[in-house]
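Here is one such tokenized protein:
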Amino acid sequence: MTKKEVATKENTEISTDVMSELEQFANDGLENVTARDVKLPIIKVLTSNSPALNESDAKYNKDAKPGDIFNEVSNTVYKGKEGMLVVPCLYVNTFNEWADRGDSAGRPVAIHGDPSIMKTTQRADDGRDRTESGTYIEDTGNHFVYILDEDYNPVESALITMKSTQKKKSRLWNSMMMSKRMQGKKGFFTPPSWASVYRMTTVQESNSKGTWYGWATSFDRFLDQPTDSDLLQITKSFSENAKKLDMVSGVDFNDDKAASNVKASSEVLEGESKDNVPF
């Protein structure tokens, strides 16, 4: 190895002393960054009318296909059958009020936390729960998750929203989490959601009103090994921050509705008419 190569190698390595110094000032300068100041990725199941599948759209991804799982912020595609690993860190049920496409600003008119808002709506001919003013409300399960790679390394935090036909999948996932048990010194207990890993895949579904892709969730494993200690700190921290910060109202739903408002349901595949929306 030449002297130049040695010098280059030495210059690019960060000494442990410098790293320790930086670690003391972790997050310094980010004190005023709130949930509204960052873009939390919404992980979605791609449909035939998703921007990622439109060659003329700036968000086009040549590797994406209907039924794949897509992270629009990082432009990452997860094949639907293989899926992705996530740690569920917090669940929040909201009732998002929308204006119809063309009248919408790309984000909810309001985000309601009280389910009694549904009592003010009536089911319209298009299958939506309409208010007297003409807006519609979607019962939405918001799953704040931490994405892992296949080696269980943390990748990034994200949001998976489940509504319409997928709301029952949200309830099923919650039931799975609440039914898990670990054995401690005092007996069996329900572990925190941020200590479990799940694999999210997609499956094709259909009924008399249409065909679409939906979520499939399966338990992978607990984060109960000594090597999981650092990861647990990350998932626990995200869970705590998600509780403290108003993350739901800070979510940029713009991209989510851009695709889903093309038809009355974002889950319907190409070729299905508006009248065949599966609700």
Remarks:
- The longest strand covers residues 84-98.
- Residues 6-10, 255-279 have pLDDT under 50 and may be disordered.
- The longest helix spans residues 229-244.
- The CA atoms of residues 265 and 277 lie 6 Å apart.
